[in-house]
Design goal:
single chain; about 120 residues; alpha+beta; Mannose-Binding Protein A, Chain A; 5-stranded mixed sheet; two-stranded antiparallel sheet; 2 helices; about 20% helix; globular; CTDL_fold; Putative asialoglycoprotein receptor 2-like isoform X4; C-type_lectin-like; receptor; C-type_lectin-like/link_sf
């Protein structure tokens, strides 16, 4: 989690421990994460973390299982997700719970979530 890595490498790292990148679908999940787990996990206040959402083949965001997220509650910052031409974009979050689209080959921290 303290290591900065690409989205694909972060998801691979999570999968080796029977988990996946953190997915926060509901307002209550986001609120719980930012008010409780962020501090419990000792994540720096200025950190940005990969989320388990990635731009799919049709340009729409999907979760780590390939399910579309447009019908789910999202927390995209105003004007997001922005598309970076020629790249696949992935979602990050910050302590405020806002989401941004970033190029998946960038390096950010990540949190794994146990598979149900």
């Amino acid at each position: 989690m303290d290591k900065l890595t690409t989205w694909d490498q972060a998801e691979t790292n999570c999968m080796t421990s029977n988990s996946h990148l953190l997915t926060l679908y509901t307002a209550s999940e986001r609120d719980d994460f930012k008010s409780n787990l962020w501090n419990t996990l000792n994540i720096p206040d200025d950190a940005e973390l990969w989320l388990g959402f990635k731009e799919g083949p049709a340009g729409k965001y999907v979760d780590v299982n390939g399910a579309p997220i447009e019908d789910k509650t999202t927390s995209w910052e105003r004007g997001e997700p922005k598309d970076v031409p020629g790249s696949v974009d992935c979602a990050i979050t910050n302590t405020a719970g806002q989401w941004w689209a970033k190029v998946c080959s960038n390096a950010y921290r990540y949190v794994c979530q146990t598979l149900d």
